[in-house]
């Protein structure tokens, strides 16, 4: 998994989801220890990018 892909995913998630959606995601998930509301989704995208490199990450 490349560092560039990791940075792209980290950059894309806040741009994709507006603040109101981020707040609702934070409330619906179990509290994260690092304060990252996208932790679960970020890990899914990282894993998927390994299985399907055509997604562009």
Automatic annotation (TrEMBL):
<dbReference type="InterPro" id="IPR035969">
    <property type="entry name" value="Rab-GAP_TBC_sf"/>
</dbReference>
<feature type="domain" description="Rab-GAP TBC">
    <location>
        <begin position="1"/>
        <end position="57"/>
    </location>
</feature>
<protein>
    <recommendedName>
        <fullName>Rab-GAP TBC domain-containing protein</fullName>
    </recommendedName>
</protein>
<dbReference type="InterPro" id="IPR000195">
    <property type="entry name" value="Rab-GAP-TBC_dom"/>
</dbReference>
<dbReference type="Pfam" id="PF00566">
    <property type="entry name" value="RabGAP-TBC"/>
</dbReference>
């Amino acid at each position: 998994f490349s560092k560039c892909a990791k940075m792209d995913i980290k950059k894309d998630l806040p741009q994709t989801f507006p603040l109101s959606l981020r707040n609702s995601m934070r409330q619906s998930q179990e509290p994260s220890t690092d304060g990252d509301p996208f932790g679960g989704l970020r890990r899914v995208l990282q894993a998927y990018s390994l299985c399907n490199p055509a997604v562009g990450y």
